[in-house]
Amino acid sequence: MYQRLTMPDPALATFNRLFGPEFGHGKPFDVPRLERALGQLGSPHANLPPVVHVAGTNGKGSTIAFMRVIAQAAGLRVHCFRKPHLFELMERFMFADETVRMERAVVEAAERVAAVDSGLTQFDAQVAVALLLFSEMPADLVVLETGMGGRNDSTNVVEHPVASVITPIGLDHQDVLGSSLAEIAAHKAGILKRGAPAVIARQADEAREVIEAEAERIGAPLFRCGVEWDAHYQPPKLVFQSNDRLMEFWPPGEVAGPHQFDNAGLAVAGLLAAGLLPEDIAGKVEQSMSLVWVHLLGRLRVLRHRRTDKIMSRGGEVWVDVGHNAHAAAAITRALKEMQKRRVAPTTAIIGLRARKDAEGFVGALAGAVDHIIAVPLSEAHVSPHQLVKIAEKNGVQARAARSLDEAIQRAARFPEPRILICGSFLVVAEAYAVDETPR
Fold first, then answer.
1. What three-state secondary structure class fits 146?
2. Domain-wise residue ranges, the chain
3. The CA-based dihedral angle spanning residues 117, 123, 124, 130, taken in that order and rounded to the nearest 10 degrees
4. CB atoms near residue 354 (< 10 Å)
5. Cβ neighbour number for residue 214 with a 10 Å cutoff
6. Which of 58, 92, 124, 397 is the most buried (most CB within 10 A)?
7. CATH fit for domain 10-288, picks 1.10.260.40, 3.20.20.120, 3.30.70.580, 3.40.1190.10
8. Rounded distance between C-alpha atoms, residue 286 and residue 343, angstroms
9. What is the mean pLDDT of each successive set of 10 residues along the chain, which is 440 residues long?
């Protein structure tokens, strides 16, 4: 599961060769071209098992992971496509048959897609490969995560999902999706379809109003957190309640943060709205301990390997989280404050942010929960560590720049029994996991 960053990635190498490198979040939208290519491949997007389509700003990956294990506990076979990945491209493709390594099938499917249109963007080609294989391999459910936005996203070629799920919406990708929550919500709401339940996480009013208006316009039944359903942590269980169902689940055990209870509840709501949860599902999940064993690499969890052994042996903690926008930072802040109630500790955030991310918003939202910030560079275009230091100091947090992640960890470890959080990007978290030996 854990790999060096330098290990070869045959699937990624194939997509790079056939379609060129993947664009960042500024990739062009060209759904009509993808639809034409899919038509030449036999229209796999029209021949899928039931599809749950997931959009939103934060929590998509966690919600999909919970949805998958709950569905599996119910005896369903599940395919998933998600984005991005930490270590290798194959993390994006999850197949119902988990006993077989599917890399060869993905590579061969990529060749088939390239044969009809090698001019697709790499992400569009990845979507085409996922839809092609999902249409050919038996399953009871397909869960699709949008790449960006929703209305113009490549995954929106699916016309008849059994449910559309929208996770919390925040400010991110403003240069493409718009500068306000309302504009971004309009893109996300583009996945809603007539007759398919619109399963909505708790939203800021500005986003909620846009989503509700679009659902009413097209005739998508609303299933909203705080209205038609809700979920909360009532120790020791996660309690889910809708108008006609009351269920209890063991909560996530390998991840931290109150927001994960929200994500798990949204997963239950999505499957319930899709008509995929049997009456005895809570018992089945409890027996399999599915929610306890959800593995969400990089979603606010403890990092354990040789880099952190000495810190932890001295009573410290090292956490990682891939959150990279203000909304995610606010969720991390809530979690850090809960940790502080359990054990008071000097808290240092080691931050690396990609270029064009809202550094002001991210650091500002995190500032109230950390004592120190150490800014680090990334392996790709990034916000300057010195710029991050200036932003942190403007927000009243002591900060300094480090030349590398290792240097930053060493500096943070000088505090007594520290709490260290490595965050801001999938890149910095992947680097944190990547070591010369397998961690525990």
1. coil
2. 10-288, 301-433
3. 100
4. 19
5. 19
6. 124
7. 3.40.1190.10
8. 30
9. 58 95 69 97 97 93 90 92 89 88 94 97 96 97 93 95 95 78 94 98 96 98 96 86 85 68 92 86 56 64 81 90 88 91 94 91 94 94 95 96 94 94 92 60
Q: Which fold has domain 301-433?
A: Protein-Tyrosine Phosphatase; Chain A (3.90.190)
Whole-structure pTM value: 0.84
Q: β-pairing, 317-321 with 163-166?
A: unpaired
Give CA–CA dist 34/39, Å, rounded: 9
State how beta strands 419-423 and 398-401 pair.
unpaired
**Dihedral, 206, 212, 215, 221 alpha carbons, nearest 10:** 140
Output the six-digit token pair for 173. 């990708």
Contacts of 84 (CB under 8 A, 6+ apart): 92, 426
Neighbours of 387 (CB within 10 A): 16
Give the containing element (helix H, strand E) for 133. Answer: helix 122-136
Count of beta carbons in the 10 Å neighbourhood of residue 216: 11
Element (H, E) at 330: helix 326-342
pLDDT at 45: 97
Distance of CA 351 to the CA centre of its chain: 18
pLDDT score of 205: 95
CA 410 to chain CA centroid, Å, is 29
8 A C-beta contact, residue 49 and residue 131 = no
